[in-house]
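Tokens in:
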């Protein structure tokens, strides 16, 4: 773990971001943000394991993708349930043509921080936004991109909505975006040496909005970069934590950790 006035942690292996500013009304406290594609929270054991990771890393806020929980028709857009030490806010997963539950984004919030949560909203099936009181305010976006083989309309629609969401957020606030972007980006300290289609779209989004991909900022061994292991054992870095460039001097470290295997996910916490 890193040390500093404040720390933000990101998700599929843990991304650590440190800031000396006052966040979430907790001056000089360590604030940890996480990011994880959990690949299902449908079982009690998976929710217990997620809660264990949140406790082990003292995660204040965690961005979640692929919880695969479909809400009932009478449920609100955001459903709230307890994980134990944290509360999870989910927007509904959807069902594919075979009737299987797919997708679903969520945000977990440490129970002690709930009084600071001013709003949480579903933007669409792939994007959620939470806003916290503080000096400055903290905006957290959890998102889940279509895959690199998805049709152009799906991926273009995703980035249009994400761009519109970010454009609506004031420039002076702390913005943290945690997501499974299904993207390979070629950067000096990234896992990949080539950029795929989704990676180019992510790079365009980052450049357009003056953002940084925090887990490509630091020279790390490859073991601290990859975030996903495919069924054929292919390793890739597709999960990222993004912040605005104005926070660059506050970001001291960012990397991934091998902690999510017990959940049954092939992703790792950033």
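Residues out:
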């Amino acid at each position: 773990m890193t040390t500093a006035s404040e720390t933000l942690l990101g998700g599929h292996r843990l991304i650590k971001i440190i800031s000396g500013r006052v966040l979430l009304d907790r001056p000089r406290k360590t604030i940890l943000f996480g990011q994880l594609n959990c690949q299902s929270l449908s079982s009690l054991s998976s929710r217990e394991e997620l809660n264990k990771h949140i406790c082990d890393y003292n995660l204040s806020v965690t961005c979640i993708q692929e919880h695969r929980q479909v809400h009932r028709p009478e449920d609100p857009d955001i459903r709230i349930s307890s994980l134990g030490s944290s509360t999870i806010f989910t927007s509904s997963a959807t069902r594919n043509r075979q009737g299987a539950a797919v997708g679903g984004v969520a945000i977990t919030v440490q129970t002690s921080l709930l009084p600071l949560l001013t709003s949480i909203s579903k933007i669409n099936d792939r994007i959620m936004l939470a806003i916290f009181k503080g000096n400055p305010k903290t905006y957290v976006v959890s998102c889940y991109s279509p895959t690199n083989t998805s049709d152009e309309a799906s991926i273009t629609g995703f980035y249009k909505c994400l761009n519109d969401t970010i454009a609506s957020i004031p420039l002076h606030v702390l913005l943290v975006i945690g997501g499974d972007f299904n993207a390979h980006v070629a950067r000096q300290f990234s896992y990949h040496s080539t950029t795929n289609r989704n990676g180019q779209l992510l790079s365009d989004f980052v450049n357009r909005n003056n953002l940084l991909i925090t887990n490509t900022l630091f020279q790390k061994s490859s073991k601290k970069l990859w975030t996903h292991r495919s069924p054929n054992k292919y390793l890739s870095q597709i999960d990222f934590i993004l912040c605005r460039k104005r926070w660059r001097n506050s970001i001291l470290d960012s990397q991934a950790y091998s902690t999510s295997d017990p959940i049954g996910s092939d992703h790792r916490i950033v």
